[in-house]
Design a protein that fits this description.
There is one protein chain. The protein is of the alpha+beta class and 187 residues long. It folds into 2 domains: 41 residues; 138 residues, Domain of unknown function DUF1254 (Immunoglobulin-like, Sandwich). It is 32% helix and 28% strand. The chain has 4 helices and 8 strands. Strands 1-7-3-4 form a 4-stranded antiparallel beta sheet. The protein has a 4-stranded mixed beta sheet with strand order 6-5-2-8, with no helix packed on it. Strand 3 and strand 4 form a beta hairpin. The longest helix is centred in the N-terminal third of the chain and has 38 residues. It is elongated, with a radius of gyration of 23 Å.
Length: 187
């Protein structure tokens, strides 16, 4: 077997170091970036200003100047809530009762979307969710009649409600009360 020269060995170790570094940076970015983004979203300045910890918050309609979300849709009204099921379940309820599109999406602390319900799935019935952690809690409370149990893969997460509006000013009297039916409260 032929021995490697010092020059070849040096290049082998350089390439090995480069590949190892690239793999580690990639894995760290794939794992850390979603968690960091969600931490800023759930605990950053906007979350603190809107006081949305285990309660619904209702940001103003999106305008051309609004950029808290990258490329927000001016056709949608957003409602948000940061939930925490560490000490017990969180009850999420809403009764938009609209003929147009609306949806409620739940996101885990790593940004995974794990639950969605919309106007079609709800089929005109009010939304009543009993959000619990994977392990549950030792002080289990009785589940309200008619509530749907949703298991969160993380102790904290984010709720995003979207309501479609074609002309906010013309539909404001119907759309605003509908989106404000969202409640996100510790059980």
């Amino acid at each position: 077997m032929k021995r490697w020269s010092d020059h070849r060995r040096l290049w082998f170790y350089r390439v090995l170091t480069l590949v190892t570094t690239a793999i580690l940076v990639h894995l760290l970015a794939v794992w850390a970036a979603p968690r960091l983004i969600m931490q800023v979203l759930m605990h950053g300045p906007m979350a603190q200003t809107m006081n949305m910890q285990n309660q619904a918050a209702f940001p103003p309609p999106v305008t051309a100047a609004a950029r808290t979300v990258v490329m927000p849709s001016p056709d949608l009204l957003y409602s948000v809530c940061v939930y925490n099921v560490t000490t017990g379940p969180v009850r999420v309820s809403a009764n938009p009762n609209l003929k147009s599109y609306w949806s409620i999406a739940l996101y885990a602390a790593n940004s995974d979307n794990f639950f969605v319900i919309n106007d079609r799935k709800a089929d005109g019935t009010p939304v009543d969710l009993w959000l619990v952690s994977e392990g549950g809690t030792s002080n289990a409370r009785p589940i309200p009649t008619g509530a749907r149990v949703v298991v969160s893969p993380s102790k904290t997460g984010f709720l995003l409600m979207r309501v479609l509006t074609g002309d906010y000013e013309a539909e404001k009297s119907v759309i605003e009360p509908a989106r404000r039916t969202l409640a996100c409260t510790p059980a």
